[in-house]
Amino acid sequence: MKKIKVFIIDDHKLFIEGIYALLSDETSFEFVGNSMSPDDFLRRLSEIETDVFLMDIDMPEMSGINLTKMLLDKRPDSKVLALTMYDDFRHIEQMMKSGAMGYAVKSENITELIKAIKTVANGGKYISESSRETVVNRLGSIHELEEVDHVSKSKLTKREIEILLLIIREVPKKEIAEKLFISPRTLETHRKNIFAKANAKTVLGLLKYAYKEGLIEV
To answer: Could you read off the pLDDT of 93-108 as tens digits, one per residue?
Structure first.
């Protein structure tokens, strides 16, 4: 089986060594190097062959957010997983908007990090459990979200937007149907339409669509 190549950009040597040690037993990974500064990383970029870039956000010369934008300008197919100590909505939103495919917090357990790396390497979107909770907690009420200007421009109907927001909150299907006074069959039809219109396959895909369409009131 082909190994997933990983490159780390972080300005803390002990952290880099710690990641190497923690993931050393994961036979599906191959660490191909690291940079401890954005300048060093950009100088070496043309020589780096990797599947996933683990990107810190808080670095002295340049933020990981701006560095991710520069990386994707030079190499649009790059897959970036933010690995940071920040778990606030502003950093999550800015990092994902910069083009990162995933967001993981350094305080998460190693199992979650392994899952995050594999998901991003395979082309998927990933937001760690604690970060996802932060995002969901910042969603406004359904009524507030239905009243924002962008809703009228969305391809989704108001009912579909209502259901989308409940899906993002991970409300069980049965509860959604009961809350909206619709049958399970009708709900399933709405769900299929929502995922199709949003061109999404996962709940994280719906989150990305909600950001893009301005359906989430921050």
So the answer is: 889 889 999 999 988 8
